[in-house]
Amino acid sequence: MECRIEDFRYKEVVNINDGQRLGCVCDALIDVGRSRVIALIVPGRCRFLGLFWREEDYIIPWECIRRIGGDIVLIDVQGEYLRGRRERRPWFTWQFDEKHRP
């Protein structure tokens, strides 16, 4: 089966140990030097109606993935999930260099 990284964005992640649904994949960590996927990232749950903040993202190591189906990714994680924060980029930035100065 062939799959693009873009296709993972629509796959739901489920832990087979406790049946918890974590959400859909939003990003992937890739080691470009070794040409391999290190982990999949699933966004954390929204808190307080999603207006103010989110929980930290789930980082699912590639070794924990057991099956990849057409619309689901089954993982095997026992205990606590590895959590982390993504770098937030501003949605609007001005980037000037010496050439564009008036």
Describe this structure in words.
The protein has 102 residues and is mainly beta. It has a single domain (5-100), classed as PRC-barrel domain (SH3 type barrels, Roll). 4% of the residues lie in helices and 38% in strands. It has one helix spanning 5-8; strands spanning 12-15, 21-24, 27-31, 36-42, 46-47, 53-54, 57-61, 65-68, 72-75, 83-84. Strands 2-1-9-8 form a four-stranded mixed beta sheet, with no helix packed on it. The N and C termini lie far apart (54 Å).
Write the layout of secondary structure elements.
Elements (H helix, E strand, L loop, with lengths): L4 H4 L3 E4 L5 E4 L2 E5 L4 E7 L3 E2 L5 E2 L2 E5 L3 E4 L3 E4 L7 E2 L18
List low-confidence stretches.
none
Oligomer: single chain
- Specify the structural class: mainly beta
Strand order of the largest sheet: 2-1-9-8
Radius of gyration: 17 Å
CATH H level, superfamily name: PRC-barrel domain
Summarize the structure.
This protein is mostly beta strands.
